[in-house]
């Protein structure tokens, strides 16, 4: 089975071809980050206009790279939600139009399901059940994953997402948008032990997360200290350490609660080096294992959508003619496969 | 007409947000609040206490990525906007911004200056700024004179708590 997948939920246009026997044949990504850098954020209307502009050439390029034509395809998967409505509609309209023209089935994929299954595209894949830690600019959640479509959200951010805290703290430090990766780079120059940020919500039971307060703490720390590069790097280090530590504490708590041994981390923040180093060593200590997507598949991409869509099409979950994009879509509403 | 109050810490923020929530709950027409202030000023914290006092149970997620988070409390629509990532005010037109300001909806807008010219005038504008101490904030209230007049007594009560 060979599936063409589209991801257009936010500011990346991602297209991929996945084959269940040959694996990922091609994936192309066009990021609007540069476009949005001028504005300091993702502009919904620009995002959808840019998807319109880029999606067809990207599809052609991806199909050519995968040496695939319409006749070789068995279905089209696209991101149905959650996300920005204008951006989602572009993906859904193009997917369903092409499917109609090429007489193929379509399936609308949940963006977060795409992320949590992204490590399945690697050589070493996690067995079910596992805990998924989904951390990106728009989401932070801890999910009990018993199988495909069998999800229970154990905890989520009550305010800012982890990636959002990175981006906003970076902005406080005067870094360019999107600042998360730049903040992590700055933290590499930082020395540990200078500042102690709080570990939000770790002192109470439960698996919910909160990152808004860290941003405020960062703002106060920046204001109270000198404005030289080393101080900034030290603050960046302490901030990053607090986010990683908090995610680690909560993930270990989720393992304890469920009795599972495996953690999957996905979403843009899963590309963070300190996060990977700390999770690798800490989970090893407790006899656990951690799985990530490769760096190129941590952020939004079409490959994860093609993969997740394939699982659902293989199970016969073909959508009807009457579907709507869903800017809000609880992960727990998905049917099991 | 305007008021400026000083808030010493988060507990004060809660008292202030909750007394404002009680006031808003009594207004049976549409109500628009702009909430301005730098990153880390405490807009999220303020919004959380306000919405929870109005009757929302559970998390108050940051609307930064979604632009707006909708709630319905006791048949009243509440829209929590965050325009931080908006590039141009005219983009609000593309998301049908006018439809949100109808009926008796309560609309709370963070980073309202990014929607200048398109957003309607607020009933109340709160500008939060850092004070001299780390947890201290000053909140400047401006907006419709009759609202400020009605609020006067409550606000003064909080300020002198």
Automatic annotation (TrEMBL), chain A:
<feature type="binding site">
    <location>
        <position position="180"/>
    </location>
    <ligand>
        <name>substrate</name>
    </ligand>
</feature>
<feature type="binding site">
    <location>
        <position position="300"/>
    </location>
    <ligand>
        <name>Fe cation</name>
    </ligand>
</feature>
<keyword id="KW-0819">tRNA processing</keyword>
<keyword id="KW-0479">Metal-binding</keyword>
<feature type="domain" description="Gcp-like">
    <location>
        <begin position="24"/>
        <end position="307"/>
    </location>
</feature>
<feature type="binding site">
    <location>
        <begin position="134"/>
        <end position="138"/>
    </location>
    <ligand>
        <name>substrate</name>
    </ligand>
</feature>
<dbReference type="InterPro" id="IPR017861">
    <property type="entry name" value="KAE1/TsaD"/>
</dbReference>
<dbReference type="InterPro" id="IPR000905">
    <property type="entry name" value="Gcp-like_dom"/>
</dbReference>
<feature type="binding site">
    <location>
        <position position="115"/>
    </location>
    <ligand>
        <name>Fe cation</name>
    </ligand>
</feature>
<comment type="function">
    <text>Required for the formation of a threonylcarbamoyl group on adenosine at position 37 (t(6)A37) in tRNAs that read codons beginning with adenine. Is involved in the transfer of the threonylcarbamoyl moiety of threonylcarbamoyl-AMP (TC-AMP) to the N6 group of A37, together with TsaE and TsaB. TsaD likely plays a direct catalytic role in this reaction.</text>
</comment>
<keyword id="KW-0808">Transferase</keyword>
<keyword id="KW-0963">Cytoplasm</keyword>
<dbReference type="InterPro" id="IPR043129">
    <property type="entry name" value="ATPase_NBD"/>
</dbReference>
<dbReference type="GO" id="GO:0005506">
    <property type="term" value="F:iron ion binding"/>
</dbReference>
<keyword id="KW-0408">Iron</keyword>
<feature type="binding site">
    <location>
        <position position="272"/>
    </location>
    <ligand>
        <name>substrate</name>
    </ligand>
</feature>
<comment type="similarity">
    <text>Belongs to the KAE1 / TsaD family.</text>
</comment>
<dbReference type="GO" id="GO:0002949">
    <property type="term" value="P:tRNA threonylcarbamoyladenosine modification"/>
</dbReference>
<dbReference type="InterPro" id="IPR022450">
    <property type="entry name" value="TsaD"/>
</dbReference>
<protein>
    <recommendedName>
        <fullName>tRNA N6-adenosine threonylcarbamoyltransferase</fullName>
        <ecNumber>2.3.1.234</ecNumber>
    </recommendedName>
</protein>
<keyword id="KW-0012">Acyltransferase</keyword>
<dbReference type="GO" id="GO:0005737">
    <property type="term" value="C:cytoplasm"/>
</dbReference>
TrEMBL record, chain B:
<comment type="similarity">
    <text>Belongs to the TsaE family.</text>
</comment>
<keyword id="KW-0547">Nucleotide-binding</keyword>
<keyword id="KW-0460">Magnesium</keyword>
<keyword id="KW-0963">Cytoplasm</keyword>
<keyword id="KW-0479">Metal-binding</keyword>
<dbReference type="GO" id="GO:0002949">
    <property type="term" value="P:tRNA threonylcarbamoyladenosine modification"/>
</dbReference>
<protein>
    <recommendedName>
        <fullName>tRNA threonylcarbamoyladenosine biosynthesis protein TsaE</fullName>
    </recommendedName>
</protein>
<dbReference type="InterPro" id="IPR027417">
    <property type="entry name" value="P-loop_NTPase"/>
</dbReference>
<dbReference type="InterPro" id="IPR003442">
    <property type="entry name" value="T6A_TsaE"/>
</dbReference>
<dbReference type="GO" id="GO:0005737">
    <property type="term" value="C:cytoplasm"/>
</dbReference>
<keyword id="KW-0819">tRNA processing</keyword>
<dbReference type="GO" id="GO:0046872">
    <property type="term" value="F:metal ion binding"/>
</dbReference>
<dbReference type="GO" id="GO:0005524">
    <property type="term" value="F:ATP binding"/>
</dbReference>
<keyword id="KW-0067">ATP-binding</keyword>
<dbReference type="Pfam" id="PF02367">
    <property type="entry name" value="TsaE"/>
</dbReference>
